[in-house]
Amino acid sequence: MNAQYQQLSNEQVWEMFRQGDDGAFGELYERLFNDLYRYGYQLSRNHLAVQDCLHDLFLYLHQHRSTIGAAQSVKFYLMRALRRRMAHTSHEQAHLVLSSDDEGFEFEGIIPPEGSPEDEWVANDAANEQQRTILGYVNQLPKRQREALYLLYYGGMTHTQIAETMGVKIETVYAFLHRAMEFLRLHLLTLLFVLWFTAS
Amino acid sequence: MQQQSYSSASALALDASFQEWVQHPTPENAVRWEQWIQQEASHQQLADEARRMLLLLKPAQADIPDHARQHVWQRLQASIKIQPTVQKASVLTLVTNPFQRIYRTPSYRWAAVAAIVVVLMGGAYWSFFMPRDTEVATTVAEIKTLTLPDGSTVVLNANSTLTYDARWDGTAERSVTLSGEAFFKVTKQNVQGQGVKFLVRTKYATVEVLGTQFNVNTRRERTAVVLNEGRVRLVSPTANSQVIDLRPGEKIELTAQGSFTKTPVNPDVWTSWKDNKLIFNGASLHDVAQLLQDNYNVTVIFEDDELANLNFTGGVPANDLDKLVRVIAEAFSIEVTRTEQTIVVRRKR
User: Fold this and answer.
1) Which single residue of A44, A57, B99, B217 could bond B181 by disulfide (Cβ 3.0 to 4.6 Å)?
2) How far is CA A198 from the centre of its chain?
3) B8-67 residues touching A, CB cutoff 8 A
4) For all residues of chain B together, what is the average pLDDT?
5) A137 and A77, same structural domain?
6) Min distance A105 CA to chain B CA atoms (Å)
7) In-domain check, residue A53
């Protein structure tokens, strides 16, 4: 957005913000808005709730800039802060509760890039059908397992950071992730078997 | 990068650098992972499997509504101006607290001097170059009339704040942010034959107009708009970006949840406050109490809940709270007593 920050990492911009640079505040907002918004929306499935909490979060940062600490990873720090805000906010409005268990963090699969080993799937109706079925299963995993996958894959977080964000033990995160991945792997094995069977 | 052996495709799929390669392949990570795949026959199969798993894990992301980024930013700017006290207080502690310690070593002293210089220069830069928003606020029982740069007039009710961009020249988009209640008389403006929109941004909706008269009230976690003449359009900043057109004599209320109700009203009743009159047309005493709370910061206590349901019709000067209290007491033969900040309503004994 602003050329003077272009070469700087999120963490460097964060330092400038802490030291009173208002431009850096705007830069952080610009850089992180989308990621935070998407995460907040996955949590709540409510646009107004996300906007309220983002407003409150950035207002808090602005007001406490001189007392907030240095951040190892700004994105992690803010995602965690947003989650806490959305989960614990004492707002009297019902809309600020988190969405129900079957909502949020649904996966839809990716269209494989052309020429990649998975490209042939696109042309294969049976494969597409199977892929949709698997996604249906994945989306029935408990919401917290889906959230852990989301944070790992799209939040770019380490296991420790996921544990801190979700407020669970790191062993729980390992268990979540491993269970979800094994579940996915077994269903994929079935898919491959079916494909091989139909092809032969 | 740890490229040891992986017990299963799941373990490989959970490896951060493997994910990085699948999500954002670069020549460097591709070389490393292709080497790993060549190492053993079983690696190829593991990698294929893990890749497929990860490709399925793309979340269904909803689109971020248009203007959400801008909308939240504007609200944020308005809030930062309304509540600067915390910031001042924390700056103050920063300056006063550490000083006893800073004094002791010369290097810290120089650092402190440098820091102060930087802060002062930053402040000077900010105040000279950053365009500031213009903010007009009213306190309890105060009504202000102001004229915007484009000639539109705004009557700002008590306890309300109106903010607009200082750079506003009114040629691109005329946009103000409101919290509280205000009555707008918007002048039509054309640039090259095109009408220039006038936007009133509130927490739960944006009101779009070309030229008209209307009242906006954002109190009590909702946005209410009453249209006197002309035509306005409301856009609620939610997913479906609901667009609602309003006709003269209609009142619309939007809640935080995004639901809305539209009712026909007499606009004069809803905008009488701007002429320093309060008109009630069968309003319950509960509604009257809320209005007093909003505009005068007084708390109304009903000793008996039934009293809150009485309906009141009548008009009183808006700047005379005592008179209103007397009129209501007489109309219902009830006892209404007022202290500085509280009004107590009870049955006559």
Assistant:
1) B217
2) 36
3) 8-11, 13-14, 16, 19, 23, 48-49, 51-62, 64-65
4) 76
5) no
6) 6
7) yes
